[in-house]
Amino acid sequence: MIGRTAFLLANRILAKQPAHRYNNEMALIPAVGRKSLRSRLIFTVLYLSLGFGAVSTVYPFLLMLSQSITSDYDQSHYDIIPRYLTRQDILFGKYAEEKFGGNIDQINAAYGTRFIKLQDVLPPSTTNPQAVAGWNSFAAALPSKYKTAGFAGNTASYSPSRLLDRYHAWLTDRFHGDIGALNRAYIEEDDSVLTVAPPFEQPGKHSWAPDNTVKTRDWVVFQKTLPQYFFIINRADPLYDTWLKEESGYSDVNALNTSWGTSYKDFRDIPLLAQPSGNTAQRHDWETFTRTKLPFRYAAVAPNALGDYQKFITNKYNNNVQKYNQAYGTNLKSLADVTLPSIDQIPSTGPPLLDWLEFLTVVPLKWFSADTVETRYHTQMPNSTNPSASKAATLPLLQGDWEYVQADPVPLRVYYATRNYTLVFGYMALHGRALINTALYCVLAVATALIVNPLCAYALSRFNLSYGNVVLLYLLATMAFPAEVTMIPNFLLLKQLGLLNTFAALVLPGVASGYSIFLLKGFFDSLPRELYEAGTIDGASEARMFWTITLPVAKPIFAVIGLQAFTTAYAAYLFALVVCQDQKMWTMMVWLYELKADGAPDYVMLAGMVLSSIPLLIIFLFAQRTIMRGIILPSFK
Length: 637
Description:
The protein is mostly helical. The chain has three domains: 88-234 and 403-408, no CATH class; 237-392, no CATH class; 431-635, MetI-like fold (Orthogonal Bundle). Helices cover 58% and strands 2% of the residues. It has 29 helices and four strands. The strands form two sheets. The protein has a two-stranded antiparallel ribbon. α4 crosses α17. It is elongated and about 115 Å long.
């Protein structure tokens, strides 16, 4: 056993008395001198400088926190506290941006507004609760063909999306978390539920109709689970206005007014009526648009047109019922048995769709009309203004969304403040083994650094080796080269050893650190030799003295080295990607980079940075006293 002499000397090194003496004896300004005006001015300048330094450090961090809970709507405003947390008008603009995926054209088309950019989106100045209540009842009863699910996110692959969150959760329940079963049912090759995209929809296209695949049928079932506020109403007036402005041949609205005999101030003031009206030019333009450009599902054909349709089919197929049956997959005995098809049952491709689109161009105008959301609203709501007079009867979509935001703003604010973090955490938790790989890598890196480096430093310090200085110089030389220089040789060596895509490939190249060995050797050299002489007298082995005397004294230095090993392993990206290209071995930092490569916007990446910094912050907070002792202690003799 180590004798009492060695034990007392070791405790003397660990005692707090040296630090106490240091604080009193090594003070730059004596206690008496601190009361002078000059000393107080010096202290004031020092404190002001330190305060300014603290603010300059904290402010960027607070700004990063603020930006991590923003979106495309408000990321250009560098506020410490995002304005949507305190102002409902900004909260509404953020809600509209989320609902319409940041598309200002869709926002204007839905609300009948003329906002120029997202930041211009504001709530209405006044609302009519009775009109909003009537609109909500009307919208809830609309057929699904007039609705499109909103909140789908913007064009980025990994942007927050309330719709996708619900859809992926529904798919997980639908297929019991079995991605293989999902791929077989949908004929896809998705890596996880997170990569499954909804069916592609083009409700504004003239010839588009939903297909009859398993995925689309499931999508229809899923949409029935969504609340009413999730849906975007597909209006026809904006389609008509755009066609008049860009494709009808009118150079401006004045040319249209001259041709139509009207007095519209803007193309966006022109409604699409159920039936043509006005002079010959206006009726011609209405007919051209509704027959060839209006989505065919929004065009109504009266049952009285059955005879005209049968005549059209007879001419189309040369009165050959077998040819018709082959094209339609039916077994009619005569073309006289052909019925007028239901618009909602027309397939998305094939002869039935092509024949119907062609029939729309020849059906007698008396049996033809536009069956849009606007025409239905003005027909079913008796208090609505006649749309033929002006656009004063714009659907109260803007007022409805504003009332929804006003009704309960707190859940919206909480959602917007947490959604970026939820997305990043879900991405990390469900992709590969990012969290497990990172934890194991850090544990192994710290363990090996605290085993190999102290042993090497102790040997160089305790034993008078003839080649000790050469070894130390070689270790220090490794600090002269950046890590990127050794990356290729390390990769080639690990490849030859067959260690790629393993934890050994991550840990072994960084086991020995020239800086850590140099730091530890310098500290070991400063320890009193009496400690080891007393241990030798008491008959302690070298291993026992290393474990009982050296390690307890060097704990603060070990904390610094352990923290350095942890931060190096935790923040490793390029090296971790080079030596472990298998996604199953990727760490958090590699997946964060992949998240950016997949199209995540900047505010999502900032949320990822904040989340990734939390482990480092926690470790520093709990170990800061030990770390500071590791910085100060080597100065004591």
